[in-house]
Design a protein that fits this description.
Layout lengths: L1 H29 L12 E3 L4 E8 L4 E9 L5 E9 L4 E5 L3 E2 L4 E8 L6 E10 L8 E8 L6 H5 L6 E4 L5 E4 L6 E4 L5
Parallel strand pairs: 2-9
Antiparallel strand pairs: 1-3, 3-7, 4-6, 4-8, 5-7, 8-9, 10-11, 11-12
Length: 187
């Protein structure tokens, strides 16, 4: 009987060792993986990256706003903004550092000084290798159109206008020679 006890004791020890190893392996394999996610800022455009200002009268200004957000888990550091343009485009911005979920904006103003087409690119330099889009800007400088109420009265044919010495305005319709004077009523 002594032998049976030794076998039984040895068997129990082996079984306990095997169970211990099994429990250890099971516990390790079932343990939740501890992943360390790298924190990273993500620059996300919230508006179109193509700004078409259309036709703007010379000397007048039009503004549009470019909105962006940091959709990442780390702070977004904008190192600089570069506007490669004619002087018709200017930018205004305030925030160069955005916390996670933070929002920012750049106000772009277009003020043409000549009758021509304008284009430019607004680029962001962002720290830590974060990608940022380039914003394309386009607009046309145009002169204001002047229409005469008298022209409309003569079916679209252009009348001639004269300013007399007595500061009266005289209009003559070229097609039929009719004239009318605007002023103090004296001829």
């Amino acid at each position: 009987m002594k032998t049976n006890r030794n076998i039984t004791r040895r068997s129990r020890q082996r079984i306990a060792s095997i169970c211990g190893i099994f429990l250890l392996v099971t516990a390790c394999s079932n343990a939740p993986a501890q992943r360390i996610a790298a924190k990273q800022a993500i620059f996300t455009a919230k508006t179109s990256t193509n700004f078409a200002f259309g036709s703007v009268r010379l000397g007048k200004a039009m503004q549009k706003t470019f909105y962006y957000q940091n959709t990442g888990s780390d702070t977004l550091f904008i190192q600089s903004l570069e506007l490669n343009s004619d002087s018709a485009f200017t930018i205004q911005f305030a925030t160069l550092t955005l916390p996670p979920k933070g929002r920012g904006k750049v106000i772009v103003q277009f003020e043409p000084q000549a009758r021509q087409s304008y284009s430019a690119r607004l680029s962001f330099a962002v720290a830590n290798g974060v990608a940022a889009p380039t914003v394309t800007l386009r607009g046309n400088g145009v002169q204001p159109e002047m229409h005469s109420a008298i022209e409309a009265a003569f079916d679209g044919t252009a009348p001639s206008l004269e300013l007399g010495d007595d500061a009266r305005l005289k209009e003559t319709h070229e097609a039929d020679g009719n004239s009318c004077s605007l002023g103090d009523g004296q001829e």
